[in-house]
Amino acid sequence: EVQLLESGGGLVQPGGSLRLSCAASGFTFSSYAMSWVRQAPGKGLEWVSSISGSTDNTYYADSVKGRFTISRDNSKNMLYLQMNSLRAEDTAIYYCAKVEWLNYFWYWGQGTLVTVSS
Amino acid sequence: QSALTQPRSVSGPPGQSVTISCTGTTGDVGGYNYVSWFQQHPGKAPKLIIHDVNNRPSGVPDRFSGSKSGNTASLTISGLQAEDEAVYYCCSYAGPYTHVFGGGTKVTVL
User: What are the backbone angles phi and psi of residue B30, rounded to the nearest 5°?
Assistant: First the structure.
């Protein structure tokens, strides 16, 4: 059974940093691209970033480019999102998602809440 | 990376059919047959109900169907049921490892 479990969310001041983690199990982690998708309170879904399975190619939404860094450790089945220079508009639930056939998200974690506020 | 355009809300009585549109550009919806749809109930993670324009994952009722014409994709719910009341999001592949979502459509069962 595929399981994705995010952690690392919390309250952080504007300009601060936070690292999110996603523990994956139930599939061959290194064979799949992974993504982060976020949802601001009461708002819609926004794709944030993706990383390829084994070549570590990374891709970002314009809204986070230069501030967020996605990475993975295939030996630990872990996905990460390093978030720097955080802004109030980054406040959201952050979901990690497994990318199927490079084009759709079938499995999602339960999400972790990031709140950027002074 | 502009969001896909969806109507804010649609509604219908039980048993009726409703259709949700999702309009993008040639760089996303129109350029690839890689549109997916998600159902989200309050406080829950999104659930995949359609992928690759018109494919249902196992376990998704066949009253959910998808289609696409040009830059616009559509989700049809045939025979609305009370449990279908939720927010629905479209999502399109937009190039290597990138995706764009729609703003979401609230479906209300009257």
Answer: -75, -20
A 12-31: CB under 8 A from B: none
Instruction: Name the residue in chain A with its Cα closest to that of B35.
Output: A104
Q: What distance in Å separates residue B58's CA from the closest CA in chain A?
A: 11
- Supply φ then ψ for residue A31, to 5 degrees: -90, -5
* Structure confidence by residue, pLDDT tens digits, A41-74: 999 999 999 999 986 799 999 999 999 999 999 9
